[in-house]
Structures are given as C-alpha cells and as structure tokens.
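Hey team,

Filing this mostly as a record. A colleague (T.K.) asked me to run one chain through the structure pipeline before their review meeting, and I want the input and output archived in the tracker in case anyone asks later how it was produced. No errors, nothing strange. Just documentation.

Input sequence:
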Amino acid sequence: MSAELDRRRAHLKNGGTINNYDRSHYKKEDTMIKATLTTTQGSTKGMTFDTKEHLLEFIELFEVALPIGTAVNIDAPLVGIHSGWIQGKAKKI
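Output structure:
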C-alpha cells in the first residue's frame, strides 16, 4: 500500500488533482463478474469473467462439453443469473 501512497503523493506534488489521478493500475478483481458452479453432488467452483459475453460464451461451450444427463448449477448474480442450470449436450462415446 505504501507504493500506492507514494504514487498518489507524487501525482499531487506534480500539480495533479485527485480527480485526474490514473487508476488503471488498480486490480480488476472488483469489476470482474464472479460465478459459482455447483455440481449435483454439492462440490463448488468459483470462476471470474471479464464481461457478460465471456460468461455466456463459457456457458455455451460448457453445455457442449458436458455429457447428456449431467447438469451443473450456475450462480452469477451480478449479471442476473440466479441458480440457473447448465444441461449437458455431449453424447457419450
């Protein structure tokens, strides 16, 4: 945190204001879309996505990879997915 404080002080010392301080170096974790996958057996896995489009693309690809008869619950409240189910579409070989 001291490095961040030093950056802010240097910015203000050079005539900058708090309103034009560059915050692009902050971690993006706060803006990431968090999703939780839960199997029917109860095990969970957390995942993060940059955009809603990336999340929807993952769901489409995951449906194709899961075997028919398998389902996984997905919860991503930030984008309006509350306890949705991903149903498998892949035929077992």
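Quick notes for T.K.: The chain is about 30% helix and 30% strand. The two ends are 53 Å apart (CA to CA).
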